[in-house]
Design brief:
Radius of gyration: 27 Å
Number of strands: 44
Shape: elongated
Structural class: mainly beta
Largest sheet: 22 strands, parallel
Number of helices: 2
Distance between the termini: 124 Å
């Protein structure tokens, strides 16, 4: 009996040990699951405009001027790191400042700009009911990891195809899906996409339902052929760089090189060439036409990236569809850009557009979303999270800018640097407003702009709201024929401001200002004799400036 009691005690003790071990294992598993859940939550929370500390400072190196950080749109202009000087930001470069090698071993032709790295702090601007003046830029969506991608034709390794037809009529399916880190070459394709999507941000940010989607680090070269979409959420060619929509984060190297291709889209949310998530796109001599709402011909969205365009024609016909919408670093040279209903170009947040020898025509006759003004060059911050906040940059050298309706330039809810040199500007609007810096339909940021003109002729009213700021620098034989005032009425007929805010004007010895009405500034730098009064008075802090001609 004693032996039996001893055996029973032994078994009870053993059972107790096993139970304790099991409890310890379960506790460790629960802790791991909790940590994993926290990481996923942190990752999801990082889809806003806050750039993680490990990816901050990834703006293009060597950018004459790096996009000044501060408030708002246009990034790019500048000298060596200082906002506001002439020059472009970044440059044609691909990864590490060099264009990616094409499969043939050649590199894409040089583009205007410096030797910047790709992936300047991005912005987006996808079609969304909230956000941009163009309806671009709605609130964030899922991660690309949550998307079940599918393609009518899928390429998952190195390949070269020529003369093939790729067709999809299924919603949320790509006609051609290229998901590989290898090089792919597509020649003379015929791509057709129908089947509308209600995928929203998955279409805008991650390429769901696009005719052609390139991702996962591939360098894909497309030459010739046609890409046609007739569906909502169906972008033409989509380069997704895989950074999960983190503005300012580097992408995975995904690069699209496309040339001599015709792209036509008709549905809403269907841009011509689309770049997001830190992707890179090189486009040469394309013929792109879009007709849907929120369908810019050259389009970008959350996570930004680098876009280099040389040659070609880019036309947008839809509401809220500029020829270019930038939440990325975009350089365009030798191209014709036409917007028949919306702004010519739009920059959101800490992003940029550089145009070199381009002809841009805009006929913005209908307001969209929160916009209360009509304009040709729109620079703003929607605060939607699609673009990081900071100084935007618009740089234009040579070429022509024809503004058929509204103000030529409009800056609101952000900081912007505009740099112009040798551009032929034609303002066909009867109000003849060159630039307005003032409140519009967004809030949360200030209205601050720097306009640098070098060898540039400017004409029209300069309007600066009472809570806004403009610095105007004329150099190298530039001239302004116009006046500065703060009496501003928007396109809805509402009074926005009644007196001028903070305005600083600097003329070098070779530049002149011809007044067309009494003008009000807070600071004037230069020789007063270079101001041609033309019977009007220039007031500096309320005092008439003497010595004018």
């Amino acid at each position: 009996m004693k032996h039996i009691r001893t055996m029973l005690a032994f078994f009870v003790a053993g059972a107790l040990v096993l139970s304790l071990c099991a409890c310890g294992s379960s506790a460790e598993k629960d802790t791991l699951n909790a940590e994993t859940s926290a990481e996923e939550t942190g990752s999801a929370a990082n889809t806003d405009n806050t750039v993680p500390s490990d990816v901050r400072g990834t703006q293009p190196d060597g950018t004459p001027p790096e996009m000044p950080s501060g408030e708002t749109p246009p990034d790019m202009p500048g000298g060596n790191g200082q906002p506001g000087g002439p020059g472009g930001q970044g440059g044609p470069g691909g990864q590490n400042g060099n264009p990616p090698e094409m499969p043939s071993g050649e590199t894409p032709p040089d583009m205007p700009g410096g030797n910047g790295q790709p992936g300047s702090p991005g912005g987006q601007g996808g079609p969304g009911s909230q956000g941009g003046p163009n309806g671009q830029g709605g609130p964030g969506g899922n991660s690309s990891a949550d998307i079940d991608y599918s393609g009518a034709v899928e390429i998952t390794s190195a390949d070269s195809q020529s003369g093939r037809t790729y067709t999809s009529t299924t919603s949320d399916e790509n006609a051609l899906l290229i998901s590989t880190s290898d090089d792919v070459t597509i020649s003379d394709p015929t791509v057709t996409k129908s089947g509308s999507s209600n995928g929203g941000d998955n279409c805008n940010f991650y390429g769901l339902n696009a005719a052609v989607l390139v991702k996962d680090g591939s360098t894909t070269t497309i030459t010739g052929g046609t890409i046609t979409t007739d569906a909502s959420g169906a972008n033409g060619i989509f380069s997704y760089g895989g950074n999960g929509g983190r503005n300012g984060a580097e992408g995975d190297g995904t690069t699209v090189i496309i040339r001599d291709t015709t792209i036509v889209t008709t549905g809403s949310g269907s841009g011509g060439i689309m770049t997001t998530g830190g992707g890179t796109t090189y486009a040469y001599d394309l013929d792109v036409t879009t007709s849907g709402q929120s369908s810019a011909a050259i389009r970008s969205d959350r996570g930004g990236g680098l876009v280099q365009v040389d040659g070609g024609t880019y036309t947008s016909n839809g509401l809220g569809s500029p020829a270019i919408y930038s939440t990325a670093e975009i350089h365009v040279a030798n191209a014709a850009l036409v917007s028949n209903l919306s702004e010519g170009v739009c920059i959101e947040g800490l992003n940029s557009i550089e145009l070199v020898n381009c002809d841009l025509t805009a006929n913005n006759t209908k307001r969209n979303g929160h916009a209360t003004f009509l304009d040709s060059i729109m620079i703003y911050q929607s605060m939607s999270g699609d673009a990081a906040s900071g100084t935007s940059s618009f740089t234009m050298t040579g070429g022509s800018l024809t503004s058929r309706s509204g103000h030529v330039f409009h800056v609101t809810n952000t900081s912007a640097v505009i740099t112009l040199s040798g551009v032929t500007i034609t303002n066909e609007d009867s109000t003849n407003v060159l630039i307005s810096v003032c409140d519009d339909g967004w809030s949360g940021g200030g209205n601050t702009a720097v306009l640098n003109a070098s060898a540039q002729q400017l004409s029209g009213a300069v309007l600066v709201g009472s809570n806004s700021k403009l610095t105007l620098n004329l150099s190298d034989g530039s001239s302004l024929t116009g006046y500065v005032d703060g009496k501003i009425t928007n396109a809805a007929g509402e009074t926005v401001s009644t007196e001028a805010g903070t305005v600083s004007v600097t003329l070098d010895s070779t530049s002149t200002w011809i007044l067309t009405a009494d003008s009000y500034v807070t600071e004037f730098n230069g020789d007063a004799s270079n101001v041609i009064s033309n019977g009007h008075t220039l007031y500096v802090n309320g005092t008439a400036l003497g010595g004018t001609n």
